[in-house]
Structure to design on (199 residues):
């Protein structure tokens, strides 16, 4: 007798990978119905599987959303070499690009602090570490991390809302340039705050 794999098989015998389920879930989440449209039943219908298969892989909707966030944010990191503030700018620009692409995912995470993804924490810790390389006060670096992350969220979500209202993507290059100018100004203010504290 051959052992059957874990989980309930699809009704039609089709094998569907967790990666395929996540891709379809992200499409639903970022669609017209947003988070309200992302139900296990709607996702199962879209993928063509039994809803229990999704529960097997992701436990519940919160687990599914967390897995989506881990997938989306996995590649967001600072360059390994270079000036620390330039690396911080690159890290924030990479995160900004993901929030612009997947605003509903960001808002879903805001609504559920308990599912804060590991990669989001890693990005925050990485930024704090970069700022701490120039700052002897961890509390000061953490405060500026929150300022920079909040600015990134606000700028990216504003672009995403504008894109949705006009029905297509606006000039994201111009928006990215504006965002990067804002980050540069904030990092300059951070640098001046260090000089002021050490004076």
């Amino acid at each position: 007798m051959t052992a059957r794999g874990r989980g309930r098989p699809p009704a039609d015998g089709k094998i569907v990978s967790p990666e395929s389920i996540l891709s379809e879930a992200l499409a639903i989440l970022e669609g017209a119905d947003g988070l309200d449209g992302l139900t296990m039943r709607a996702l199962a219908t879209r993928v063509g599987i039994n809803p229990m298969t999704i529960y097997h892989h992701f436990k519940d909707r919160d687990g599914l959303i967390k897995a989506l966030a881990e997938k989306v944010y996995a590649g967001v990191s600072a360059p390994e070499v270079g000036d620390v503030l330039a690396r911080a700018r690159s890290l924030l620009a990479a995160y900004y690009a993901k929030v612009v692409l997947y605003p509903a995912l960001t808002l879903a995470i805001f609504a559920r602090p308990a599912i804060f993804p590991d990669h989001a924490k890693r990005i925050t810790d990485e930024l704090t570490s970069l700022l701490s390389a120039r700052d002897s006060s961890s509390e000061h670096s953490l405060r500026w991390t929150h300022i920079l992350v909040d600015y990134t969220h606000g700028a990216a979500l504003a672009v995403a809302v504008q894109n949705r209202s006009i029905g297509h993507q606006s000039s994201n290059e111009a928006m990215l340039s504006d965002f990067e100018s804002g980050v540069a100004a904030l990092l300059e203010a951070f640098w001046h705050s260090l000089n002021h504290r050490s004076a």
In short: The first helix runs from residue 18 to 29. The domain at 18-58 is CATH 1.10.10 (Arc Repressor Mutant, subunit A).
